Amino acid sequence: MMDALDSAIANTHAHLESLRHARGHWEGHLSSSALSTATAIVALSLVDRDKHAACITAGAQWLRDHQNADGGWGDTTLSKSNLSTTLLCWSALHLAGTHSTASDDWIITHVGSLEPQAIAKAVIARYGKDKTFSVPILMLCTLCGTLGENGWRHVIALPFELAALPRTWFGAIGLPVVSYALPALIAIGHARFHHAPPAWWNPLRWMRALTWPRIRPMLQTLQPSSGGYLEATPLTSFVTMALAGAGQLDHPCLPLAVEFLTRSMRDDGSWPIDTNLATWGTTLAIRSLDGSVSSPSALRSSLLSQQYREIHPFTNAPPGGWAWTDLPGGVPDADDTSSALIALKTLSLSDPELPHSSFLIRHCLPGITWLLDLQNRDGGMPTFCRGWGALPFDRSTPEITAHALLAWWTWHGELPPPLQTRIVQATQRALRYLQRVRTADKAWLPLWFGNEHTHDESNPVYGTAQVVHYLGENARLAAQAGDLIQSGLDYLRSAQKADGSFGGDATTPPSIEETAVALHALSLSDSPPSTLRPSLAWLLTATRHGTHFPPAPIGLYFARLWYHEQLYPVIWTLGALQAARKVMDREKH
């Protein structure tokens, strides 16, 4: 097996290098999205149907060509049909005048009828108190005419007037949308107010009318130079269609937003969920190459140039963090900041032009401090904003918490004593959080990854594998987290299939991504190499010895939208194969 393993590592390494952008980083390739495509063609239709006819026609054709056999649509072409995406595609094609009865039948089967009240009830039930996605869906359906003449009464009013309050208050006032959705709150809230205002005697009517002139310019202030809010087609489309649907076609943010949407369309007529995850993919690739990356100085300079140096206008995040993309629509977050810090350490160890790490320390100190300041009171790490724990995508999450722990301890020994003390204290709080949030079978559930085939669409294998990996990669951290690591390893062994592979849990179909992250975690244990061989053999076969990497839609984007990414199976396979190789080497010696 050793020869086969070495060959697969070389093949995977070469394949990952072949995916590098001409500028030296990794940009990746996100799956095309039916949801993004539907929202984009609705937005362009409402702005100027004639001017954007070519884009609208191509997008509608792509939707028809990629409708699932059951009549619905999934978030990717590999995904099961779901209510949200099917309603959006159904409505978009209705607006285009080309919808099919098969989608009518799918909705009737899953909702009970095509009655607006039934549809609205089903959408609201899917998302609960989080209005980040349920309200935009119902707004789009209303704008397309699929919720009838009185559709606006089914669109929940959003308190856009709260955007006039100081940004530091947002965590305390309990906004009904997550932190990154402020533009949607403003635009959709105003559209609902424009079409269905409160009664004349209701003070909210007058408050909203009076605050709109003050809040209206915020949409332009929050808009990045690329035109795309968060570089995301759905969010940009929802803001665009809301303004157009409310008669705000003269709003100054619309030209850039429309330009972003037309520029983002792919040659086949589809749109991806986001422009790219270039920073995330690049930092993961650097780490998986484990010191053998070429052009480390250029990569280091590129990463340092992407660190935020000013307060971010979107989430009010302080300087020091990194976003998932190198484009202007990104927002600093804990996962990407952790990965960037760890990648910079990897680059510093492999760069002969950097004789001492003091330069990197000067740049990494703000990142370490940024992460420490983000830690929630419960000890866990949120994604974007501290204290916004009321809604799902703003809460603490175990895999990001463990990732931050690894970033802290990767640099701990080179930091000033006061910061070392802060890390020790923050670590104890984080480990207690990880102890508390394990499931009954000692697994950890991730926030930004899932599996459509588990009973609740969670992915305990991915979450547990990444927590174990992050806690176990640094010796000083692992010494403090031994019991947590062991319980995670026990769960992974219980979820392993007879052929050595892994899915989202013990019952779901396997994937390269899930098997790779689980194998990597298991390789950090003291188990004998024989326990790794079934997973290793499965991974070698599935990847055709490092030459074939079909992706699986296990990624979760904002509001639980599924995606797959070209880089994930390659990066995680390389990391797993190299970790397993080290275990085999120890057996030989």
Structure description:
Helix content is 55%, strand content 2%. The protein has 589 residues and is mostly helical. It has three domains: 1-30 and 438-589, Alpha/alpha barrel (Glycosyltransferase); 33-272, Alpha/alpha barrel (Glycosyltransferase); 276-437, Glycosyltransferase. The strands form two sheets. Strands 1-2 form a two-stranded antiparallel ribbon. The protein has a two-stranded antiparallel ribbon with strand order 3-4. α6 packs antiparallel against α7 (131-144) and α20 runs antiparallel to α22 (482-495). The model has no long low-confidence stretch (mean pLDDT 91).
Features:
589 residues; mainly alpha; Glycosyltransferase; 3 domains; two-stranded antiparallel ribbon; two-stranded antiparallel sheet; 4 strands; 2% strand
Summarize the structure.
The protein is mostly helical and 589 residues long. It contains 25 helices and four strands.
